Amino acid sequence: MRIGVDLGGTNIAVGLVDEEGRIVARGSRPTKPERGYEAIAKDIADIALELIKRSNLSVSDIKSMGIGVPGVADSEKGIVIRAVNLFWIKIPLAKEMRKYIDLPIYMDNDANVAALAEAVYGAGKGSKSSVIITLGTGVGSGFILDGKIYNGAHHFAPELGHIVIGDNGIRCNCGKIGCLETYASATALIREGKKAAEKNPDTLILKFANGDINSITAKNVIDAAKQYDEQAMRIFNDYVKYLAIGIVNVINMFDPEVIILGGGVANAGDFLIKPLKKEVAENILFKELPYADIRKAELGNDAGIIGAAILS
Description:
CATH topology of the largest domain: Nucleotidyltransferase, domain 5
Helix content: 25-40%
Number of domains: 2
Structural class: alpha/beta
Strand order of the largest sheet: 3-2-1-4-8
Number of helices: 10
Distance between the termini: 12 Å
């Protein structure tokens, strides 16, 4: 039995995970980052100890604890190098955790641990190399190469959302212009949906948002595209082309067996994946060779807990 922790800027989610990757007990609390890392570390330990007790186990029955953090972590040193949403820089999280729970503690970026979970128990099961791309507020990514998380020489790879694919004049949160996530995130769909609704108030995008332009979501744009709304189809088709550019770059550079799409936009399922596969096929370098299959993630929000648990 292992403990997995999905540490986010809003919530701390902790799970007890068995050898088959099943979450057998879980608990959560609000993160409240303003309290500082000491209080958060204690909360993580308190939730974990409560789950152990509730499951009629003892700490000695637990092999390890893994933590997925929203930032850059050095597992060997037990340090969170930087986590912007938590306001953390060089935080000795493992050392603080061991004040409350005596377990081996492993850490990695939250997208990386989700990628590991999908590779072992989800859409990438059976493959040796896979890439997860999460399509949400931004574009997150995690690479599994030869069965192991790849996070680069300095622990911050991969940042697929920040490869520059053009110059759309839109400044990314990182400060650069032209990052993939300014084209291929849910935020990009929302931005373009609002622009379309301002110019074309009869679009279904606005109707699906109950007439409130500020309430437009990525789902509104996708649902309108499914109904053949002209504006929504234009936005969605452009979105697919931009996402395909990112995926083609990944395939050309790393040649993974599987590419897994997660996050809210991926809930569009085949409506997204079918045209995306077509666009990728038209732009791939070696068309005569087999290349990565594109699939929807299977584990949903549980991937963070499961992946963290199996970090050891």
